[in-house]
Design brief:
285 residues, alpha+beta
């Protein structure tokens, strides 16, 4: 696990986040929390909500929105459009944790040419991701009251993508809430709550799309991913310890070369952890 921590530490340092003073668990938590907030580079088809292109044209932002669309389509790095807060250990994306809705800055400039992140913008683009698609929901002013608690975002999803809306519902039944929080109350709970996941009722339908946040504010989904990685790493270590001769034989056959010994370590490559065998220069996914 310490090798994995060293790889995670080096990766985050390239992004400007120093976790060297953190404990082993906190350091890995920081890595998986950043990974949760970062957008994986892969080709995705973009789907626009019906109103959005017209709204972008009225705001004179259509060309920039199309540039972002092209980046999604081609699998380019979208992360420079995110807030710089993704790299702050105690800055948590509660909208993503609770509603599985991302947001980015609709910006085309950087403060300095060599900066990684774009400058903050007056408008934010809200969107939902799955494995193969990006759903552009809405653009809203950054300074709008309760901008990260707008129930209208869920209404737009319902009006445009019913299949996604059904997945967002709280179970397969229509549960009524004894108290339906207002947007102001939702914003307050997002800011002040500790380890609380609460449903949201919109137009008589109850939603709970995300996994929420732990008492620390970190994404529960990111915590689950870290714990799963931890368990699997020890399982893999046990397998490699008990099957070294077999793995050596299979590697020799695959590479058509003799190996005197095996030397394993953990490496982070292209956003994924691998078991790396030094003498054969081979990565096990």
């Amino acid at each position: 696990m310490r090798e994995a921590r060293a790889e995670a530490e080096n990766y985050l340092l390239t992004l400007g986040l120093d976790i060297s003073s953190q404990s082993l668990r906190d350091a890995m938590f920081s890595y998986f929390n950043v990974k949760h907030k970062f957008i994986e580079q892969k080709k995705r088809k973009v789907h626009f909500a019906k109103h959005l292109k017209k709204k972008a044209e009225e705001l004179n932002l259509i060309n920039l929105i199309k540039t972002i669309e092209v980046k999604f389509n081609s699998g380019d790095d979208i992360n420079p459009y995110l807030s710089k807060g993704v790299l702050r250990p105690n800055d948590h994306d509660l909208l993503l944790n609770d509603w599985r809705i991302n947001h980015l800055h609709v910006s085309e400039s950087k403060r300095r040419p060599d900066d990684y992140f774009m400058e903050r913008s007056n408008y934010l683009l809200f969107f939902h991701l799955d494995q193969d698609s990006a759903y552009f929901i809405d653009m809203r002013e950054h300074g709008e009251n309760q901008v990260f608690a707008k129930k209208e975002l869920l209404r737009i999803i319902k009006a445009n993508w019913p299949d996604i809306e059904r997945k967002f519902r709280f179970g397969d039944y229509n549960m009524k809430m004894t108290h339906n929080p207002s947007e102001e109350e939702i914003a307050y709970l997002k800011q002040k709550r500790i380890g609380l996941l609460f449903p949201t009722e919109v137009d008589g339908v109850t939603y709970m799309p995300g996994s929420g946040s732990a008492t620390s504010g970190f994404s529960i989904q990111a915590g689950r991913e870290m714990d799963r990685f931890h368990r699997e790493l020890y399982m893999i270590q046990g397998y490699f310890d008990n099957n070294g001769d077999l793995i050596k034989k299979q590697l020799e056959e695959k590479l058509s070369k003799k190996l005197t010994k095996l030397d394993f370590s953990v490496k982070l490559r292209d956003g994924m952890f691998y078991i790396y065998e030094k003498n054969s220069n081979y990565y096990f996914s």
